[in-house]
Design a protein that fits this description.
Elements lengths: L2 H8 L26 H17 L20 H4 L6 H9 L6 H10 L1
Protein name: Bromo domain-containing protein
Keywords: Bromodomain
InterPro entries: Bromodomain, Bromodomain-like_sf
Length: 109
């Protein structure tokens, strides 16, 4: 065993640093760059189409209905619900000012 290896084994009780990251959109920075709504729609619409047509996207295509699904804790657990149809409607209404705002909503899913 080399000396450097033996030193490592002596220090193997190092505690990891745990950092809490809040992924809610309220914590995300605001972006100053603005884009034309039509340009955003032109570039983001194909992404939304791929998301909708993905075989794994079924559960994310529409908003969750906690009453119909009998999950009353859903709004307590999921603070910022998001789904593909909501992102699509926000894009069509011109609510996104840049692609990073769209990305933030997709990240919430």
């Amino acid at each position: 065993m080399t000396e450097s290896h033996s030193q490592l084994s002596k220090n193997d009780n190092i505690e990891p640093i745990i950092v809490h990251i809040d992924a809610s959109s309220k914590q995300l920075p605001k972006y100053n760059v603005q884009f034309i709504s039509e340009d955003l729609r032109k570039h983001l619409e194909p992404i939304i189409h791929k998301m909708i047509t993905s075989k794994d996207s079924y559960q994310f295509q529409q908003p969750v209905d906690p009453v119909a699904l009998i999950i009353p804790d859903y709004p307590i657990i999921i603070k910022h619900p998001m789904d593909i149809s909501t992102t699509h409607n926000k894009l069509l209404r011109g609510e996104y000012k840049n692609p990073l705002e769209f990305y933030d909503d997709v990240w919430l899913m």
